[in-house]
Amino acid sequence: MPVPPSDESGRGERAFSTLMAVPAPAGTPPAAEAMLDFVFAQVWQRPGLSRRDRWFVALPCVAAADAEQPLREHVRAALVGGDLTIDEMREAVLHFAVYSGWPKASLFNMIVDEQWDRIHQERGEPVPPAKPLLPLTTPSDPEARLLVGEQAFRDVNCVPYIPVRDNPYSGAGILNFVFGEMWLRPGLGMKERRLITVACVAFQDAPYPILSHVYAALKSRDVSFDEMDELALHFGAYYGWPKASRLMQVIDEQKQRVTAEWA
Amino acid sequence: MPVPPSDESGRGERAFSTLMAVPAPAGTPPAAEAMLDFVFAQVWQRPGLSRRDRWFVALPCVAAADAEQPLREHVRAALVGGDLTIDEMREAVLHFAVYSGWPKASLFNMIVDEQWDRIHQERGEPVPPAKPLLPLTTPSDPEARLLVGEQAFRDVNCVPYIPVRDNPYSGAGILNFVFGEMWLRPGLGMKERRLITVACVAFQDAPYPILSHVYAALKSRDVSFDEMDELALHFGAYYGWPKASRLMQVIDEQKQRVTAEWA
Amino acid sequence: MPVPPSDESGRGERAFSTLMAVPAPAGTPPAAEAMLDFVFAQVWQRPGLSRRDRWFVALPCVAAADAEQPLREHVRAALVGGDLTIDEMREAVLHFAVYSGWPKASLFNMIVDEQWDRIHQERGEPVPPAKPLLPLTTPSDPEARLLVGEQAFRDVNCVPYIPVRDNPYSGAGILNFVFGEMWLRPGLGMKERRLITVACVAFQDAPYPILSHVYAALKSRDVSFDEMDELALHFGAYYGWPKASRLMQVIDEQKQRVTAEWA
Between chains, do A140 and B135 touch, taking CB under 8 Å as contact? Predict the structure, then answer.
């Protein structure tokens, strides 16, 4: 296990300030240093998942935790460091909203705007105009949208079946909007959407979506087995190991299932 | 304050079994009995919020807590007791999904179907066909849908402004779907949607949506001041005091704001 | 910062199996090992907070995370290791239920019963009868109970004021039950109740209860400054560092406040 020794004083602070482009919190108590060291000097530095990919796990976790100051720092660092474009960040907010609830996402959305403005103010540059919403790339006609949603549901979830239409949750919600529109928006690639989704289903910890989304991320080969293991560690560092231990158990089971199906 | 004495043995169990239409859990340890007594023999029996209305607070709380067995019992009891129709229950699942995230809602949705089937099986009756999804009552054309969403945003939130369109979260999400479709669906009345929403923003505890939704519920007179106070108690009993204390504070502030605006 | 080097292979597994009295998960991927190592070989081993005290932080966190298997293992380990008696464990479930909502607590409660039965089955011993609920040690008369609740509110929160009676949340809830009964139950000491409460308000992350409960735990001297720092690390290891970073900020502010009041 390639975990570097952690007895070097100040290593966590240096890793924090390099990634976050701001100084590490001053006067940090010893207990907090141990955590900084683990999260920033160890987890973020690991190979197996790119720095860009790690943001798509970290950002939903920080947003879900209602941690306002860390969220501000994470959003800023991901944009300033050039790992995410503003359009990708905004699309990630929408994806997060769908998987974690709109109220949770409203602060995330505000902070993205606030930090984007601040970055341009500091550079003495005007804020560029936002990408226009219209035209949508998905059909408007309800029947056509449901057909598209049914196909996207099969494709994204790697399953042959579709949920019933005549149910508000699965019809008006899942088919009509979540798969008929949201997943098909061009602003984010499938891998990025997979990473956000797995992070969200892991902290939401509903019993079934975690199974289906880990399965589909592996089965589609959008996320490799090793990347998924790294995702679990990154998630655990941000959202605590009890939820991560459930995620790891699911990953283990779904790897076996996918491997058997591929055989 | 009409709080009955709580030294009467078995009172909580009796209140539980009357409301839930199943026996109270056997062999309940003393500590749990104290809470059953509080929640079922005291909180649920209070005047100030109807039994029907209390379900729209309790159901989202139980669903959000990932408490599978209590969720099963609550869904069944609300349907068997006739307080909610199946169509209202299903619409409540969709509303909950939007405000708490789709993964969280998937178990709720499954349990509603499961209990509805079970109720009919026990009665030896066939399960009636579900209400068809189509036609939707909202416009299909994206531009028209955004216009309708903007008006619904103003009406539901009791504000004169609207959020920007050219942002995936507020454009493709909030205007296009949450207000352009979901809130306008005919399956639930405004009061019921208010109760579910306030419960959800109270446990999601994002800083701003709790302000705006408590304000709008009071300002619209969909929920009276006294009903809102009862909602906070019911919520606290189901989701714990820390989150309820924030809700209480917000209620207090928004009552003052609304009162001042009405003066 | 007394963090031992973590490059020793298998250290996390050994620490896990010693504490938990079961083997560490087999075939653990490298990423999981890093976490096991951090949580079990580093955090649990630190001085500054006793092993017994650490359970009162870890148990609510695992219960709140809906992590069924870890919850099962933690409950069992705390009972088998003799760190908590069954009566303390059950009282902890009640305290957790009040601060996190009772649906969330229902699984915790079930698992305590299940593991307690299993432990006795394995030993071939009968399960001893549970402690009777009645008589309660708090007054039955509503007026007397409110008076007791008001005094307990002042004592527990270390404040001179009390909330209004004639409000469902603060009257029927806070004064009548939370402080008029629950906090006064003899099954747990004040320090233990403080630890559970601070863990719960930290993951619930409502803005004010976290302030008042960290303040009162420090002001009452039930939890020392150094123990509180350790609590933050233990909490962060279990519930993720974004929420822990808010807790650490609050601890820092409340230490200053308490120090100023003591001066």
Answer: no
The DSSP line for C28-62 is --HHHHHHHIIIIIIITT-SSS-HHHHHHHHHHHH
Could you give the number of structural domains in chain C? 1
| Secondary structure of residue C25 in the 3-state scheme | coil
Burial class (CB in 10 A: 0-12, 13-18, 19+), C244: buried
Contact assignment for A109 to B169 by CB distance below 8 Å: yes
Residue B62, phi then psi, degrees to nearest 5:
-65, -40
Residue A17 lies in a domain: yes
Residue B18 lies in a domain: yes
CB C46 within 8 A of CB C224: no
| Averaged pLDDT, A71-93 | 96
Q: Quote the minimal CA–CA distance from B45 to chain A in Å.
A: 31
- Summarised one tens digit per residue, pLDDT across range A191-215 is 999 999 999 999 887 788 999 999 9
Residues A148-197 pLDDT 10s: 999 999 999 999 999 999 999 999 999 999 999 999 999 999 999 999 99
**Does C103 sit within 8 Å of B65, measured CB to CB?**
yes
H or E, element range at C18: helix C11-20
* DSSP symbols for A64-132: HTT-HHHHHHHHHHHHHTTSS-HHHHHHHHHHHHHHH-HHHHHHHHHHHHHHHHHHHHHHT-PPPPPPP
Give the SS3 label for residue A36.
helix
Residue of chain A nearest B177, judged by CA positions? A177
> Domain residues for C3?
1-45
Q: Tell me, what's the ipTM?
A: 0.88
Residues A78 and B232: their CA atoms lie apart, in Å, by 39
Residue B22 belongs to some domain of the structure: yes
Cβ–Cβ of C1/A38 closer than 8 Å?
Answer: no
Assess contact for C95 and B32: CB atoms under 8 A.
no
The answer to the question of residue C198 being in a domain is: no
Reported as type and span, the H/E element at residue B242 is: helix B241-262
Cβ contact (<8 Å) for B169 and A209? Answer: no
Chains sharing 3 or more CB pairs under 8 A with chain B: A, C
Nearest CA in chain C to A248: C32
- Pairs across A and B, CB distance < 8 A: 172
Contact B192, B167 (CB under 8 A): no
A209 with B106: CB under 8 angstroms? yes
Exposure b/e, B48-84, CB count within 10 A at least 16 = b: bbeebbbbbbbbbbbbbbbbbebbbbbbbbbbeeebb
| Average pLDDT estimate for C40-54 | 93
Written as one letter, the residue type at C124 is G
Using the 8-state DSSP alphabet, how is residue A182 labeled? G
